[in-house]
Design a protein that fits this description.
The complex is a heterodimer of chains A (148) and B (136). Chain A is built from six helices and no strands. Chain A has 148 residues and is mostly helical. The longest helix of chain A has 23 residues, at 121-143. The relative contact order of chain A is 0.10. Chain B has 136 residues and is mainly α. Chain B has one domain (2-134). Chain B contains six helices and no strands. Chain B has helices at residues 2-20, 26-33, 42-61, 83-99, 103-108, 114-134. Chain B is globular. The chains are: A mainly alpha (148), B mainly alpha (136). Chains A and B meet through helix 1, helix 2, helix 3, helix 4 and helix 5 of A and helix 1, helix 2, helix 3, helix 4 and helix 5 of B.
Chain lengths: 148, 136
């Protein structure tokens, strides 16, 4: 299925994948009573934040991410993954993402999915901020002619 | 133990969702942020689907005294919109735009692009460690 005007978009796959992500977050919320915030869980796994989440549970969640990706790659559809060729972009982007998600207490999963759906004012502000900031960054990088 | 099993199941569903939705492709995520260029709205459909299910989950959560498999809910209590929240989110957006990656897809993409995703994930951990060391 394609979207008129956007030949590269995958609205159906996106929506179905989104439902699964919502289901994943719902399972953690209703089962364990926790927010599925991946930056927080990753920091917890390495003992880099304060959290009551058991260390083993953090590692099992992250292991699950890999298992889910492996399963889809093997049995559903090969995962397309086009990375920037610049190592500098990966390193600088990674450091900023790591620092920023800790400072802002969340990323696309915690604020964007769990917080937005809870109508949390903090998450609404954070999500709008990182989307706008991301859009400005891409526009500036393109204007500057940075190869990606 | 039960909490571990739920974490494993939730992580697996999450990873599958990210993979099916195309979000493990940094060029597609960057395409969503490229509104002045060749815009790719896929990410909006992903967010829409996820938020739809989670909005229902919050309605159910409001009627529960405790989670099904644990003693109590552990939910963020902070309500203050402060400088750290906005600065942190703004920074995260910059890194997200530069690399086309946020934490979940970066970790999941280790299975298909171990070197590139690995460089990003190690750098991300370094950024988290710097934040920890700076005690902000």
């Amino acid at each position: 299925m394609t979207l008129p005007g956007f030949p590269n978009a995958m609205p159906l796959e996106g929506f179905i994948g989104g439902l699964l992500i919502g289901l994943a977050a719902a399972l953690l919320l209703l089962g364990s009573g926790r927010i599925a915030g991946i930056s927080g869980i990753a920091a917890r796994a390495l003992d880099l934040n304060k959290s009551s989440l058991p260390l083993l549970a953090a590692w099992l969640f992250l292991g699950g991410l890999l298992i889910g990706a492996l399963f889809v790659n093997a049995f559903v559809a090969p995962i397309q993954s086009d990375f920037p060729s610049s190592v500098a972009l990966l390193v600088i982007g990674g450091i900023i993402v790591g620092f920023g998600t800790r400072l802002g207490s969340g990323c696309t999963s915690g604020h964007g999915v769990c917080g937005m759906s809870r109508l949390s004012p903090r998450s609404l502000v954070a999500t709008c901020t990182f989307i706008v900031s991301g859009m400005i960054t891409v526009a500036l990088a393109n204007a500057a002619g940075w190869s990606w | 133990m039960r909490e571990g099993l739920i974490s494993l199941a939730s992580g697996s569903l999450f990873g599958a969702g990210l993979a099916i939705s195309g979000m493990m492709d940094p060029s597609r995520v960057r395409g969503f942020l490229d509104i002045l260029g060749n815009w790719d709205p896929t990410l909006a459909f992903v967010m829409g689907g996820a938020i739809l299910v989670m909005a229902l989950a919050w309605l159910i959560q409001g009627r529960m005294i405790r989670p099904a498999m644990a003693g109590q809910f552990n939910l963020p209590q902070t309500r203050k919109i402060d400088r750290n929240l906005v600065m942190g989110a703004a920074m995260f957006g910059v890194g997200w735009g530069l690399a086309g990656l946020c934490p979940g897809p970066a970790i999941g993409a280790l299975v298909v692009e171990p070197v590139s995703a690995g460089i990003f994930v190690v750098s991300m951990i370094a950024g988290m460690a710097i934040h920890r060391a700076a005690k902000l």
